[in-house]
Specification:
Elements lengths: L2 H8 L3 H4 L8 E6 L5 H8 L8 E6 L6 H4 L7 E5 L4 H8 L4 E2 L7 H7 L5 E6 L7 E3 L7 H7 L2 E6 L10 E3 L7 E4 L18
Parallel strand pairs: 1-2, 1-5, 2-3, 3-4, 5-7, 7-9
Antiparallel strand pairs: 6-8
Helix pairs in contact: 6-7
């Protein structure tokens, strides 16, 4: 089977893709504009059938449907390595745990200490050689994706390709892909004004 036939055979809807998530799983969303908003929304729809889903991300600018639809944190627990303004508002509401870390050690944390059952992220379309570029998440994604049992990619034609981060489409753990339509980036609520001390 050529890489393009394999790619087409692995395409799924977001609702189909998130069926891989089981109660008790650790799910990683990588970072910033590579946040998989369509997959997050599909996972949020499964709220009542899942418990103890621990989600990690950082610098997420868009609303997290898994968090917003579960204000009691009975199903989804969100954790951030580095808070955006939006994530700070979640912390203020008691809906986000901050994980202190030294950025340069993040990949080592994943390789040596952390569990990742399902990794989800947005990437630009596959190139002609069968590789996906890790785009704006190149600094953190490789360690997460290497550790994950299952990787789900949300394809976004408008993400930039950035040198230094590619992964082959033939990885056996990369079992599901979803071709996403581009969505506008919603504006986040402004953080509280800073007070001078």
């Amino acid at each position: 089977m050529d890489i393009f036939a394999e790619y087409r055979a692995k395409l799924r809807t977001p609702e189909e893709a998130v069926q891989t998530v089981k109660s008790g799983d650790w799910v990683d969303y990588t970072t910033n504009v590579c946040f998989p908003a369509l997959l997050d929304a599909a996972l949020a729809k499964r709220r009542d059938e899942l418990t103890d889903i621990k989600i990690r991300g950082n610098l997420i600018f868009s609303p997290l449907q898994t968090v917003e639809r579960d204000p009691g944190r009975e199903h989804f627990i969100y954790n951030s390595w580095h808070c955006s303004a939006y994530e700070r508002t979640l912390c203020d509401r008691g809906l986000c745990n901050y994980i202190p870390m030294i950025f340069r050690n993040m990949t080592a944390y994943y390789r040596h200490f952390l569990t990742v059952n399902v990794a989800m992220m947005c990437v630009p379309p596959m190139d002609k050689h069968g590789y996906f570029n890790l785009s704006c998440a190149a600094g953190v994604a490789r360690g997460i994706l290497e550790k994950a049992d299952v990787v789900i990619l949300e394809i976004n034609e408008h993400l930039p390709r950035i040198y230094g981060g590619t992964s082959p489409s033939t990885s056996p753990r990369w079992t599901l892909w979803w071709r996403a339509r581009i969505r506008p980036c919603p504006s986040s609520p402004s953080p509280r004004p800073r007070r001078r001390i």
